[in-house]
Structure formats: C-alpha cells, structure tokens
Fold:
Amino acid sequence: MPSSYSGFETFFLELAPRLAARGHDVTVYCRKSLFPERPDSYQGVKLIYLPSIETKNLGTLTHTLACMFDVVRRDVDVVLVVNVANAFHCLIPRIFGKRCALSVDGIEWLRGKWGVLGKAFFYLSARACGKILPKGIITDAYAMRKLYLEQFNTPSACIAYGSNIGVSTNPEVLRQYGLEPGNYYLVLGRLVPENSADLLVEGFTQAKTDRLLAIVGDANYKSSFVARLKSAAGERVRFLGRVDRPDQVKELYCNAYAYLHGHTVGGTNPALLHALGYGDCILARDNPFNAEVLDGHGLLFRDAADLAAKIEMIEADPALAADYRRRAPERVRTVYSWDRIADQYEELFLQMAEGEDPTQAHSSVTAGSRELIATSYD
Structure:
C-alpha cells in the first residue's frame, strides 16, 4: 500500500483502511524493494516493509516467509494471508499459536503462465491448505467453494472480492487511444490463454459491426500466444497495451459499447466486477464463476460463434444494451460493494478471534443461501 498493481493489493487498499476506521488495529506488510518511499502508515493502517527476492517465482514466497517470521513476534488476534501459494507458510503462525486465514484466489494450477513445476506446486498447496488451516480457508465465490469441497474436501468461508461504482468524468482521454465513446468493445486483462483473448478476437471479427475492439493488457513477457493473436486480429482490433492510470482505465470501461470477458479460472474476477460497477453491457464466457457474478446482469456466450451472435444481438437492439448498462451497477451496490465485503471480513475476524469456525458459521456475501451448482470448470 498504497500501490495497486494487482488485485490482491487493491483488495488490501480497500479493506484495511475500512477496518482501521472501525477502530481495529490493522497492519499490512509491504515488499520493501517495491517502495522507494516508505511511510509508516496509510489511512490509519500501519505499514511494515520486509525484503524479498524479486523474481517471477520467488517474490511472493520469500516475502511471505519474512512476514511470517515477523508476525509471530507480534501480539495479533488474526493473520490474513492471500494466495494459495502461501499455504505452507501458514504452518509457521499455526505452530506459534496464531489464528490464521488464507484467501486462496482462483484455480492457479490451471493458469498458463506457470510451468509444470509451478502448476504442481499450486495444486499441492490447494490440496494441503485445508489441513494446514482447517478453520481458516476463504474462497471468493460459491463455485470456488464447491470446487474446494469436491476436489480437496476443504470447507471454506465464502467472501467475494469487491468493487466500486463510478461514471465517466473525462471521456476526452479516449482520443489518445484513437477511440470515441460508444464506438468500441473493450477487453481488459492479461493476454494469456485462460483469459480467452483469442476466442474474443475470433468472435468479434465474425460479428457484423462497424465498431472497434480495444484490448487493454499484455502478457508481461515475450509470448507466442500474443504474437499469434496480433497477427490474426485484423484492422478493427486495437492493442492498447497496459494502461497504468486508474482514471483512464475507468474511462475505457465507462465509455465502451460493451465489455467482453473471457476469464475461465475463477473465482470472483476483479475486471468483471469493475465492468459492473462502471455500468457496462457485459458479454462474458459461460462458466460457473462468471455466471455467479453476473446473475442475469449480463449476457453469457459459449464459443466464438455464440459471441458473434450476442454481439449482433446488442448491435441490432441498442435498447437492450442500454438496459444492461443501467442495471449493472445495482449488482455491485447490493452484493459486491467494498463496505459489504468489509462487513463480512470483520465478522470472520471476530469469529476467529473467539475461536469459532468461520467455515461453518460465516455468512456468505452472495445473495441468500443459494448454492450455484456447477458441472464443469472450463
């Protein structure tokens, strides 16, 4: 903090100050090498900077190890750890009698950016985390909770990721990207196979539309997948690269005719929540995770041909697209607001501090007690 490079960093940026404002004593650990300036606190949250070995495979693991050996010396009620790769590190606070929770995120062992050893480590961590923290696993979607129960016999408390609601205030910034409000479809995310950018481009190019497709994001490394994607894209597809400024990302969301979402490895995806909060008409790949987040507040597609058909449907019926835009923020307001997420985490922490089992007693952030039945995890 106050960086916002990743979804987890944004998560802490939203959650920690809210808990501090409620009177809790909150500490967040930061990677020392990533912060040339190191203030002692941020919006009431104490910050501690510890070292790490900053490589693709060692950055998270080495920093978490340093955090664990530091936190066991401190008087804390609950430790929150994120990323299932850190599961084995959680043995350290458990040995020292600390109550620890782990938010496992998505199906990391299926992500294309990891090699064979990396995928095996993530899978082993997912299998072991429930044994290491039998009362402390957190999933961010009903479908992810179901997956952990069925594959690993691991119960979990279910608390979603959150989002904010926003509207366009400076659409002029689109011009620097060669775009005009309402005249483009948006894709945002890492250009990796599990995010289906190739399927999105194929479906878009098949559809009858005069609008452009703007793709925000990259692979962060030399990728043959990205090279093939760009060579096959055609002149109506614009690759904008990574956009670092949050205000410009917001304008890209808010002014799109529709947002195309191809993520497949769960659970509650931040980019999809942002699209809801910024009032997009959303076309998302049909899988249990996306269906759970949208819950009728967007359209689902199965493959490239179905995506092309859905694009042509909202092209032919602008009122339908406008209705999805109008209703989208209500999904965030009623289910995925950060204040609501903070309520859920506060409840979980208080339960853990009292020695209760939040995986059995904790109420889920999603509406009602509906269990989303999933037959596959594409």
In short: Confidence is low (pLDDT under 50) at residues 363-378.
